[in-house]
Each structure stands twice: as structure tokens, then as C-alpha cells.
Design a protein that fits this description.
- With about 525 residues, this protein is α/β, with parallel strands linked by helices.
- The chain folds into three domains: about 5-85, P-loop containing nucleotide triphosphate hydrolases (Rossmann fold, 3-Layer(aba) Sandwich); about 100-195 and about 380-515, P-loop containing nucleotide triphosphate hydrolases (Rossmann fold, 3-Layer(aba) Sandwich); about 200-375, PCRA, domain 4 (Orthogonal Bundle).
- Helices cover about 45% and strands about 10% of the residues.
- The strands form three sheets. Strands 3-8-7-4-6-5 form a six-stranded parallel beta sheet. Strands 1-2 form a two-stranded parallel sheet. Strands 9-10 form a two-stranded antiparallel ribbon.
- It starts with a helix and ends with a helix.
- The model is unreliable at about 290-295, about 380-385 and about 420-435 (pLDDT under 50).
Length: about 525
């Protein structure tokens, strides 16, 4: 029995056994069903079986928020109520207690393009509010950095909390570049649904090496690095190493170089640990280039540490990845598709690290120290209590509200999401011949817009990185459908062309001027 059976089996039971059906009909005098637009055919029949001829029930729903067809939800269930329950009393709840006028106007304009089961128009007693902003960006990196900057600036100017802001997107994969920008600027955030890029196992594996390079007392990083990929260092080796480290009061990594270690593990186990440590010391030495001493035992046993030529951060990253041989490890231990996906994540991480090193003119250790700090940002499991920006898909944001919302990636192919085999109607046809899929995507846009209470910013990029390629993008048709009175203007990014350091300095200047 699975979760779907918890609905199907009671329906079959009541349909086939009259005495069971009557017993439950007598037990349930009044029935309230919320989010009726998200019900499926089986749930609809269940309601009919429970209510029988008395029809003493209330259905609450909004056909404009039907966004779960992929789960089997049938928006037509709302329309069927009129024919199946002819005495149904219809009450329209059109007053909105969440959003200001301009946000509701944009939402009404978009959803008006869809055929509706129950026509309605949202209105609010609130003021018009600030205009909805549409911002065109050069690429998704600029989009992420600009959103991070704008949120930081607005938080200061509006004296708001971090939790007053939300960044919404169509797919979980869009969160990656936002996470990177937020971590660089130390913006706390929580991720609703999906998994953080920095929490993926393959990313954490590589970061463990970097953490160990900057802090050899980081025992969890050492254990993860020395055992991934597997290199013949198992539990017995770590137990012996741990016993010595505990008795000496040193880290596991430091204990590798203690002469007494041979009394706790075998010669073969010792060689495995020393080989690992020597490579790590070599990379650290080349990164330091003489600024920090290394152990004499390392210099004697590993002459390569004497290399003194300048090694840039990207070179040392390549050397570290060559030593780890992580790609082979993935393809040796996983199915090809999974290995390919995880290796792509690792490549994204390394590319990001190299770009940061070059753009911010950081050497290897500066880079590693920065990343170690960035990746230490923890997110509370209790998302309701933490003061942090919410990163969420539009689907996961349904039913929630935020004073300030940034909807990113409003582009054709993304929002609306276009599948390879989808056939869409011609938007120029007078009969509004859209496919059901496009109608659902429009409802998704409507849901996204109506999450905002005070201010909404919609962004789209001229180019977006997909599968390691830059794809030319077009603005979503839904932007034009919002019918903004001021039109869609390209707002110049005040931070364009600046390095992250220059951007931060410029932001501080802007905030100071606002005092």
C-alpha cells in the first residue's frame, strides 16, 4: 500500500460496499475540501461518495492557481461542481488582503489570457504601491549578483528583515548561481524544497579537500577527503590514527607525521596515509611559496615540495583534481547517467572557483580561505524561525507571501517551461488557442506574482548558462501580458563591469548616501 492507495482503496471500498458507504455518510454531516483545484478524479469521486444526495459540503478553490497537473490534479473538477451539484451556491472571494494594487493589476492582466471556470478580478483596499519592475540582465551570473545587491540595499533602506525577501524561480537548478552570490555576500538564506548545491555529496567531497588545506585540524574534512575516493584507508586505519591523535591531543592529520604512528597501524596503512598527506603538503607549499614553513620531514621525504615557481590558483586546482581523480571514481562507482550529472556539478564548482580566483585576483590560499568561510554558512532546519531570504520554486511558494519578491528567469523556455515535444497554440489566434500546458504555466506566473505583498521585481537574461553553454534567451511572453503602464524598460545595472570587491564598496557608498 502506497500513498495513492490511501485514496484509491477507500473509494473502491465505498463504491462496492453500500453498508460501509452509508456508515461514513451518516458519520460525516458536513465536509470542507480546501484547494479543490488540486484534486484529481479519484478524490472527486471520494467527495461524491461521502456527501451522497445531501450535498452538505463546501469546496474552496481557485482555478487560476491550478498548477499541479503533473501530479494528476484536474482543474476541470471545479467546473464539474456546477453540473453535479445544481443547487451549489457560488461565493466569489475577490478582495485580496495581501498585495498592493499594482501587483494585483499585473496578476489580473496575465491570468485574463486564460479561459476561466469562474471569472473574477482581484482587488485590494491597499494603495497602488510601487511599480512592478522588469529588469533585463546580461546573464544569469549578473542576475544573481544584482538580486543579491538589491536585496542587501533594500533591507537597509526599508529597515526590513532578511525573511521579508524571497527569490522565486521555475526550476531548482536556477538556485545554484543564486546560492553562490548569496554566500559570497554572506546573505543568509533557506532553500525551500530541493537540495542546496553546496549540500550535494560530490560538492562536499571536493570542498573537504579545500577545507583541509586551509585548516589541518578539521577532522571531519580530513576523514571525508582521505576516504573519498577509496584509497585503501579504512576503519581500522582511522581507528589507530584516532587513538594516537587522542593520546597526543592533536588532529588526525597532524598525527600522520608522528613517529609513534607505526605502533598503531601497519606499514602499508602508514604509507597510504603518508602518501595522501605528502600530496596535500605539496599543494599547500606551492600555494604558500615560502610564506609558511612546512614540516622538515615532508621536505626530506618529498623533494617536490622545493618547487618554488609561481603557481596560480587555477593551476593548483587542476593539480588537486588530478590527484583526487574524482571523475574516474564517479564512473567506477555509479551508473553512467548519475556519474555524468555529478561530474557536471563538480565541473561547475571548479569553474566557479577558478573564475573567482581570476576576477578577484586571489592566490590559492586566499581562495580556499574564502570558500571555507562561505561554505560554513549553516541554514537552520526550522525555516519558520530563522531570519533568512527564502529561495523557492514557484510551486513550493504557493500559499506563502513575502513583502519583497524577486522572480528570476522570466524567459521563454523557462517560464513558460517549454518541453521538446510540447505543441503550443498560436497566441495571436482570437480564440486564444493555447494548449493546456501553456495555460498551466500562465497560472504559475499568476501564483508567482501574487506572492508579493509590497514590491515585485521580475528579471530575465539575454544569455543563460545551460549545460556549460551560453544560450540566447528571449523575454517571457508573460512579461508583456502583465500590461505594465510604464512599459518594459531596461534598467542599467549600477554595478556593471565591477569586480565583486568594487561592487561591495559601491554598495556601501550607496547605503551611506541614503542615511
Amino acid at each position: 500500500v502506497d500513498f495513492d492507495d490511501l485514496i484509491l482503496l477507500p473509494v473502491l471500498l465505498m463504491r462496492e460496499h453500500e453498508e460501509v458507504r452509508e456508515r461514513w455518510q451518516k458519520r460525516i454531516t458536513y465536509l470542507l475540501v480546501d484547494e479543490y483545484q488540486d484534486t484529481n478524479a479519484c478524490q472527486y469521486e471520494w467527495v461524491k461518495l461521502l456527501t451522497d444526495f445531501r450535498h452538505m459540503f463546501t469546496a474552496v478553490g481557485d482555478d487560476d492557481q491550478a498548477i499541479y497537473a503533473w501530479r494528476g490534479a484536474t482543474v476541470e473538477n471545479l467546473g464539474r461542481l456546477l453540473s453535479d451539484y445544481p443547487k451549489l451556491k457560488l461565493i466569489k472571494l475577490e478582495q485580496n488582503y495581501r498585495s498592493v494594487g499594482r501587483i494585483l493589476e499585473a496578476a489580473n492582466n496575465v491570468i485574463a489570457k486564460n479561459p476561466s471556470v469562474f471569472s473574477k478580478k482581484l482587488w485590494s483596499s491597499f494603495e497602488e504601491g510601487s511599480p512592478v519592475q522588469v529588469v533585463k540582465m546580461e546573464n544569469d551570473k549578473a542576475e544573481a549578483e544584482t538580486v543579491a545587491m538589491r536585496i542587501t540595499q533594500a533591507r537597509f533602506q526599508q529597515r526590513a528583515d532578511w525573511k521579508d525577501f524571497a527569490v522565486l524561480y521555475r526550476g531548482n537548478h536556477q538556485a545554484r548561481v543564486i546560492e553562490q552570490a548569496f554566500r559570497e555576500m554572506h546573505i543568509p538564506y533557506v532553500l525551500a524544497g530541493g537540495q542546496s548545491f553546496f549540500d550535494k555529496a560530490e560538492v562536499r567531497d571536493i570542498l573537504a579537500y579545500l577545507r583541509l588545506l586551509v585548516n589541518e585540524e578539521d577532522d571531519p574534512a580530513f576523514i571525508r577527503a582521505v576516504t573519498t575516493p577509496k584509497r585503501g584507508i579504512g576503519q581500522a586505519t582511522l581507528t589507530g590514527l584516532g587513538q594516537l591523535a587522542s593520546s597526543k591531543g592533536v588532529s588526525l592529520y597532524e598525527a600522520i607525521f608522528d613517529d609513534e604512528l607505526i605502533n598503531h597501524i601497519s606499514e602499508k596503512q602508514l604509507q597510504g596515509l603518508r602518501s595522501f598527506a605528502h600530496v596535500m603538503e605539496s599543494i599547500r607549499w606551492q600555494a604558500n611559496r615560502g610564506r609558511a614553513p612546512v614540516r622538515a620531514v615532508d621536505l626530506i621525504s618529498n623533494p617536490e615540495l622545493y618547487r618554488s615557481e609561481e603557481r596560480k590558483a587555477p593551476e593548483l586546482l587542476d593539480e588537486l583534481m588530478k590527484f583526487i581523480d574524482y571523475e574516474r571514481y564517479l564512473y567506477d562507482t555509479l551508473e553512467e547517467r548519475s556519474a555524468q550529472s555529478r561530474w557536471q556539478n563538480v565541473q561547475e564548482l571548479i569553474t566557479w572557483l577558478k573564475t573567482k580566483a581570476v576576477e578577484e585576483d586571489m592566490d590559492f590560499l586566499q581562495l580556499v580561505q574564502r570558500i571555507a568561510l562561505i561554505t560554513m554558512l549553516e541554514r537552520s532546519e526550522d525555516e519558520e524561525e530563522v531570519d533568512a531570504v527564502k529561495l523557492s520554486t514557484v510551486h513550493a511558494s504557493k500559499g506563502l507571501e513575502y513583502p519583497y519578491v524577486h522572480l528570476i528567469g522570466a524567459e521563454e523556455g523557462l517560464l513558460p517551461h517549454l518541453g521538446k515535444d510540447d505543441e503550443y497554440g498560436d497566441p495571436n489566434k482570437e480564440d486564444g488557442g493555447y494548449s493546456e500546458r501553456i495555460q498551466e504555466e500562465r497560472r504559475l506566473m499568476y501564483v508567482a506574482i501574487t506572492r508579493a505583498q509590497k514590491h515585485l521585481t521580475v528579471t530575465w537574461c539575454k544569455k543563460r548558462r545551460r549545460a556549460r553553454e551560453d544560450i540566447i534567451c528571449e523575454p517571457s511572453r508573460f512579461i508583456a501580458e502583465m500590461g505594465l503602464k510604464t512599459g518594459v524598460e531596461e534598467e542599467k545595472d549600477p554595478f556593471h563591469g565591477m569586480s565583486p570587491k568594487e561592487r561591495l564598496m559601491r554598495l556601501k557608498e550607496m547605503l551611506t548616501q541614503k542615511k
